[in-house]
Design a protein that fits this description.
The protein is mainly beta and 122 residues long.
């Protein structure tokens, strides 16, 4: 069993930055893929990006060049650095993890964080 705890959400002005953290319990975090998703009110949960065990990253086109995903396996923690934020980035952001080796954009991850609200004002 893996538990994911998110932190770092908040309110920021357009053009600003925020960093979300996702701390994982368990000793096998380094072998897990971690995905980041977001869900705005009235919309479906959408893929933001993912990082696999090797450190390779994938991003949705809407955040590419603005968001950066990283991980620190020694700390069992993943990060989502969000720069140049826009009002349309406002959503609840979720981290997710499991041992998958493909289909990183699917929402069928086994473990999920509790979500972190990110609000970007114009």
């Amino acid at each position: 069993q893996v538990q994911l705890v998110e932190s770092g959400g908040g309110l920021v002005q357009a053009g600003g930055s925020l960093r979300l953290s996702c701390a994982a319990s368990g000793r096998t975090f380094s072998s897990y893929a971690m995905g980041w998703f977001r869900q705005a009110p009235g919309k479906e949960r959408e893929f933001v990006g993912a990082i696999v065990w090797s450190g390779k990253t994938y991003y949705a086109d809407v955040v590419k060049g603005r968001f950066t995903i990283s991980r620190d396996n020694a700390r069992n923690t993943g990060y989502l650095q969000m720069n140049s934020l826009k009002p349309e980035d406002t959503a609840v952001y979720y981290c997710a993890a499991d041992r998958r080796t493909s289909d990183y954009g699917s929402t069928r991850y086994e473990y999920w964080g509790q979500g972190a609200q990110v609000t970007v004002s114009s």
